[in-house]
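Residues determine shape. Next comes a sample protein:
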Amino acid sequence: MAERQFQHEGVTLNVEDRGSGPPIVLLHGFPLDHRMWNAQIDALSTRRRMVAPDLRGFGKSTLTEADVDLGVPMERYASDVVAALDELEIFEPVVVVGFSMGGYAAWQVALRWPERVRGLVPCDTRAVGDTDEARAGRLKMAEAAMQAGNSSPAQAMLAKLLAPETHEERPDIVALTSAMIERQSAEAVAAAQRGMARREDVTGRLREITCPTLCIVGVEDAISPPAEMHQIATLLAENNAAEVRIVEIESAGHMTPLENPAAVTEAIADFARECYCI
């Protein structure tokens, strides 16, 4: 692993930077860190430069007291990603892959810094904002995490993160996901949940994204179902001269990069090859 750390806006940001060649940026979901992408990094770093940050507060990245109290807006995660690219002296447009919460940040990168994005891969994510009920649930988990002093309240998500088949037949993946959640801090959980609770509904802005786009979704995803991802793809295709397509990943729920890593890796690799014309 080639982890690099740098200072930005009063926090330390940790980034996995491995391999050489056309860069692919991988943004992890909640409540995880960049290690959820280990299979993709291992497979693709032989011919691509793989950049996988720990989003603010997660993994080895830190956050501020204000981040915890107010929540981290998705655009702040996005600006951290752009800062990481600048720190790594990657100024060419890149392929950005955003999983779940990482997808919320990826939307903001594509909308606010379109010149930095060669191709976009929304992976098991959503474009809509929270309902009142979902927002209340996020704020409740934030408070519970801070009271517990750890990420244990987020373990309740495990049931929906993985497909029923994964829970029944792949205890290694269940244990890996649970351990990754356990490693996150209460502050990271609270900051992210409070930020997601007030995130922008970007549904009406998807037409502004004009780069090639690949939507990835697990066939059994209960959080961002295939039907919803197809709707996102349809909206992205409007007013977009570039290609927009969708790949459904078999034998996977929400955690496609862990549940069927080979299929996700292949989809990303094929898309990046087309984006970079190599």
About this structure: The longest strand covers residues 11-18. The domain at 3-275 is CATH 3.40.50.1820 (Rossmann fold). The beta strands are 3-8, 11-18, 23-27, 49-53, 94-99, 117-123, 213-218, 244-249. The CA atoms of residues 15 and 84 lie 8 Å apart.
